[in-house]
C-alpha cells in the first residue's frame, strides 16, 4: 500500500509561559537562567503557612490570549489543586483550573501547509492558567546518584491551551504550532522561546483505520517531551507508523487498551513508554481553599478585544487584498512578526510599490536580519530610506544589481540618504541617448553577435552586457539588452 | 462501612503510603466512619442551590506584577534533609 490505510488523529496540549515579571502566586522573579534556587520564597517552596496571591498581569495576559483565540471567556473562574507527588512539586499539588477554566471553547485558523491560499481550523477545548513545576536534573549515566532539584521555575505562570483532536497530519500539527507561536508573539503574551521551555507541546495521537468498511480506532497515546517543532513533526510521523504496525501485529483497538504515555527521544528518533497515565480522578482535584474565585466582567473582555490590534490572520488578508500580494508572500511577511509587517507598511506608505517592497523585505532585509541575528527593530536602514532606493529602481534611475550595492552601503552608513549613497558609489542615472550610443558602439564592434541575433539567437546579445557594464558601470543590463535588440531589429 | 480495604489501598498508594493488610482493614473501618459522618450532608435537599466555590464571600483578590525579595539560597536550602549547597537532593528518580 503506498497510500496509508489510516487517518492520523492528533490533539495538542500546549503549555505557554506567560511573560510576567513575577510568578503566578508570589513575587519571585521569573527570569530564565538565574543560579539555581535563588528565585524562591516560602510560597513557591510550599512552606507551611505561606499563602498564594494571584498575579493580576497573568490574568490580563490569559484574557488577551483567550479573546484572540476566539474563546468563550469565563466571567467566573476558580482555582483547584491537582494532587500528585514528584520531587519538583514541593507542595504536593499544582494550583490549576479544573472545571472552570478562564478560557472556554475557541478556535485557531491557520494557513494549510499543503496550500497557503486556504486555511485550516483547529477547535480549542479550553485554555487554563496554572503554575509550572521546578526542574529535576537526573544522573542519566548511572541513575544512581541523587537527582538535583532547582525550584526557580516553580510557580511560573503557564497557560495550557488544549486543542480538540482536529489535526490530521504531522505537517498540520507543525503549522498549527507555528501559527499559535506567531499569534502569541503578536500579542506579546509570551516570548515562546522553546529552548528555554517557554512553549512546550504534548500530543494525543491515534489512528482511524478503515477495515472492511468500518472504522477502527487505535489506542490513544500521549507523546510528551516535544521540545521543538521539528520534534513534533518527527514524533507524530514515528507514532503513526508505530501504531499502525502495532495494530497490524496485535489488532488492539481503543477498547482494548488504556491511554499510554510515551516520551519522545529526539536524539534517538524513537518514543518510549512512560508511566501508565493516571486516571483523571486520581489527581483528586478539589477547589483550593487558599484562593478566592476570580470574576471577570464583560467590560474587561470588551476592552481586551478592542486592544488586540491586527492579528496575523487579518494581516495576511490585508496584505493580499489591499496590497495585492500573493498568499505565499503575504504569509512570509506576516510570519516575520508584527514589527516586520509595520516595516513593510512604512515602505509602502513612503512610496514603494507593494510588490517591490515585499520582494526586498523577503530577500535583502530578511537575509541581513538572519546573518546579523538582528530583530526588525535593530535594522539600521529606516523604511523611508529604503523606500527612496526602491523608488529609484522603480523610476529606472538605478538597476537592481547596483541597488544592492547601495543597500550594503546604507547598512554600513545608515545616516546617508539613498541619493548620497548612490553618489558615493558613483551611481548616476544614465540618459537614454548615452546608452543608445554605447549600444550602437558595441554592435559596430561585434558584427558576429549581430548576425547571430539576426539568425534568431536573441540570447547572443548577452555577451555584450558585460562589456557595456565595463564601459559604463551605470548601464542597466536590462536596458542594454532591450536597446541592442531593438537596434539590431531596426537594421534588418 | 462505606469504604473497602481495596479503596484504602488505592488511596494509600496515591499518598505513597504502605500498609499491612490488617492495617488496611482497620483504616477502612475508621475512614469509613468519617466518610459516613460527612455523608450525612447528602441528606440535605440542595435542589436549586448554587454551588459554592469558596466559603468566603470575596472574589478577585490580586496583586500587581512586581518582583519582591524572596529567600536567599542558603535560607531556601536550610531545612532540606539533603542538598549540595545549590540544589535540593532527592533519591534518584526516573526521568519523566
Ligand atoms: Zn516565590
**CATH architecture field of the domain at 5-41 in chain B:** Orthogonal Bundle
- Percent helix range of chain B: 25-40%
Coarse morphology of chain B: flat
Q: What summary fits the major beta sheet of chain B?
A: none
Fraction of residues in β-strands of chain A: 15-25%
| β-sheet strand percentage of chain B | 5-15%
CA distance, first residue to last residue of chain B? 38 Å
Tally the helices of chain A: what do you get? Answer: 15
How do the SSEs of chain B run, as a string of H and E?
Answer: HHEHE
Report the C-alpha radius of gyration of chain A, rounded: 30 Å
Largest interface: A-B, 58 and 37 residues
Features:
heterodimer; A: 492 residues; alpha+beta; 3-stranded antiparallel sheet; B: 96 residues; mainly alpha; Histone, subunit A; 2 strands; binds zinc ion
How would you describe this protein?
The complex is a heterodimer of chains A (492) and B (96). Chain A has 492 residues and is of the alpha+beta class. Chain A has 15 helices and 17 strands. Chain A has helices spanning 56-68, 170-187, 229-250, 298-306, 312-321, 327-335, 338-349, 354-372, 383-394, 400-412, 418-424, 432-445, 447-454, 462-471, 477-490; strands at 6-17, 54-55, 76-77, 80-83, 93-96, 106-112, 115-131, 135-137, 147-150, 157-163, 199-211, 214-217, 221-226, 260-265, 270-273, 286-287, 294-295. In chain A, the strands form 4 sheets. In chain A, strands 1, 6, 7, 10, 11, 12, 13, 14 and 15 form a 9-stranded mixed β-sheet that branches. Chain A has a 3-stranded antiparallel β-sheet with strand order 5-4-16, with no helix packed on it. In chain A, α5 packs across α6 (327-335) and α12 (432-445) packs across α15. The longest helix of chain A is centred in the middle third of the chain and has 22 residues, at 229-250. The model of chain A has no long low-confidence stretch (mean pLDDT 92). By secondary structure, chain B is mostly helical. Chain B has a domain at 5-41: Orthogonal Bundle (Histone, subunit A), CATH 1.10.20. The model of chain B has no long low-confidence stretch (mean pLDDT 91). The chains are: A alpha+beta (492), B mainly alpha (96). At the A-B interface, β2, α1, β9 and β17 of A face β1, α3 and β2 of B. Zinc ion is lined by residues 23, 26, 28, 40-41, 43-44, 155 of chain A.
Amino acid at each position: 500500500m503506498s497510500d496509508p490505510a489510516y487517518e492520523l488523529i492528533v490533539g495538542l496540549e500546549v503549555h505557554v509561559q506567560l511573560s510576567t515579571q513575577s510568578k503566578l502566586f508570589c513575587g519571585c522573579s521569573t527570569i530564565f537562567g538565574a543560579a539555581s534556587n535563588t528565585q524562591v520564597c516560602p510560597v513557591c517552596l510550599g512552606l507551611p503557612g505561606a499563602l498564594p496571591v494571584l498575579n493580576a498581569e497573568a490574568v490580563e495576559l490569559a484574557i488577551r490570549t483567550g479573546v484572540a483565540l476566539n474563546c468563550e471567556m469565563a466571567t467566573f473562574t476558580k482555582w483547584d489543586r491537582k494532587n500528585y507527588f514528584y520531587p519538583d512539586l514541593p507542595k504536593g499539588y499544582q494550583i490549576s483550573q479544573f472545571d472552570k477554566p478562564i478560557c472556554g471553547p475557541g478556535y485557531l485558523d491557520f494557513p494549510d501547509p499543503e496550500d497557503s491560499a486556504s486555511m485550516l481550523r483547529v477547535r480549542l477545548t479550553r485554555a487554563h492558567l496554572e503554575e509550572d513545576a521546578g526542574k529535576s536534573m537526573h544522573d542519566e549515566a548511572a541513575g544512581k546518584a541523587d537527582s538535583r532539584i532547582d525550584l526557580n521555575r516553580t510557580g511560573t505562570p503557564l497557560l495550557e491551551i488544549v486543542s480538540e483532536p482536529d489535526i490530521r497530519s504531522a505537517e498540520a500539527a507543525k503549522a498549527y504550532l507555528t501559527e499559535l507561536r506567531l499569534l502569541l508573539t503578536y500579542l506579546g503574551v509570551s516570548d515562546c522561546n522553546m529552548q528555554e521551555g517557554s512553549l512546550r507541546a504534548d500530543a494525543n495521537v491515534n489512528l482511524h483505520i478503515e477495515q472492511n468498511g468500518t472504522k477502527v480506532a487505535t489506542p490513544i497515546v500521549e507523546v510528551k517531551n516535544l521540545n521543538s517543532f521539528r520534534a513534533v513533526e518527527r514524533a507524530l510521523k514515528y507514532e503513526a507508523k508505530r501504531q499502525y504496525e502495532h495494530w497490524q501485529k496485535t489488532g488492539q483497538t481503543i477498547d482494548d487498551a488504556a491511554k499510554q504515555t510515551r516520551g519522545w527521544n529526539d536524539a534517538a528518533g524513537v518514543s518510549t513508554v512512560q508511566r501508565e497515565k493516571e486516571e483523571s480522578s486520581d489527581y483528586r482535584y478539589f477547589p483550593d481553599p487558599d484562593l478566592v474565585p476570580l470574576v471577570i466582567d464583560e467590560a474587561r473582555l470588551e476592552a481586551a478585544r478592542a486592544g488586540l490590534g491586527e492579528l496575523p490572520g487579518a494581516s495576511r488578508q490585508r496584505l493580499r487584498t489591499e496590497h495585492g500580494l500573493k498568499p505565499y508572500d503575504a504569509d512570509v511577511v506576516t510570519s516575520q512578526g508584527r514589527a516586520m509587517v509595520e516595516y513593510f507598511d512604512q515602505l509602502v506608505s513612503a512610496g514603494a510599490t507593494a510588490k517591490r517592497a515585499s520582494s526586498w523585505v523577503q530577500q535583502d532585509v530578511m537575509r541581513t536580519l538572519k546573518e546579523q541575528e538582528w530583530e526588525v527593530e535593530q535594522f539600521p536602514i529606516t523604511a523611508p530610506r529604503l523606500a527612496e532606493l526602491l523608488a529609484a529602481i522603480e523610476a529606472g534611475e538605478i538597476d537592481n544589481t547596483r541597488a544592492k550595492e547601495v543597500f550594503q552601503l546604507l547598512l554600513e552608513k545608515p545616516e546617508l540618504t539613498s541619493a548620497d549613497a548612490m553618489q558615493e558609489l558613483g551611481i548616476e542615472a544614465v540618459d537614454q541617448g548615452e546608452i543608445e550610443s554605447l549600444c550602437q558602439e558595441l554592435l559596430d564592434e561585434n558584427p558576429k553577435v549581430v548576425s547571430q541575433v539576426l539568425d534568431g539567437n536573441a540570447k547572443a546579445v548577452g555577451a555584450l552586457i558585460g562589456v557595456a557594464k565595463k564601459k559604463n558601470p551605470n548601464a542597466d543590463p536590462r536596458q542594454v539588452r532591450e536597446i541592442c535588440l531593438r537596434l539590431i531589429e531596426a537594421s534588418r | 462501612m462505606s469504604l473497602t480495604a481495596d479503596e484504602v489501598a488505592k488511596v494509600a498508594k496515591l499518598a505513597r503510603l504502605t500498609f499491612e493488610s490488617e492495617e488496611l482493614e482497620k483504616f477502612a473501618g475508621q475512614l469509613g466512619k468519617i466518610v459516613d459522618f460527612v455523608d450525612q450532608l447528602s441528606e440535605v435537599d440542595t435542589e436549586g442551590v448554587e454551588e459554592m466555590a469558596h466559603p468566603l464571600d470575596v472574589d478577585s483578590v490580586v496583586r500587581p506584577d512586581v518582583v519582591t525579595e524572596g529567600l536567599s539560597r542558603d535560607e531556601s536550602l536550610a531545612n532540606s534533609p539533603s542538598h549540595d549547597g545549590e540544589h535540593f537532593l532527592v533519591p534518584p528518580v526516573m526521568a519523566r
